[in-house]
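Lecture 7 notes: from sequence to structure.

We start with a single chain of 112 residues. Read the sequence below before looking at the structure.
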Amino acid sequence: EVQLVESGGGLVQPGGSLRLSCAASGFTFSSYDMIWVRQAPGKGLEWVSAIGSGGGTTYYADSVKGRFTISRDNAKNTVYLQMNSLKPEDTAVYYCAAIGHWGQGTLVTVSS
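Now the structure, written as tokens:
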């Protein structure tokens, strides 16, 4: 059974940082690209970032480019999203996803 479990969300002040983690199980993690998406309150899903199976290729939405960094540790079956210089508009539930499966999400709130 594919499982994706996000963690690391919380309340942070504008300009602060958080690192999200997504622990994967039930599939050959190192063989699949991974993505992060988010959903702000009252809004639709927004794709945030993606990383290739080997970790050497990364992609970012323009809204987070230069502030967020995606990475993965295939030995730990975990993908990360380092978020710096956070803004109130980054407030959202963040989900990791792969091969049609999603985690339960982790809430990030950026507020003073």
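Residues 4 and 55 are 18 Å apart (CA to CA). Keep this in mind for problem set 3.
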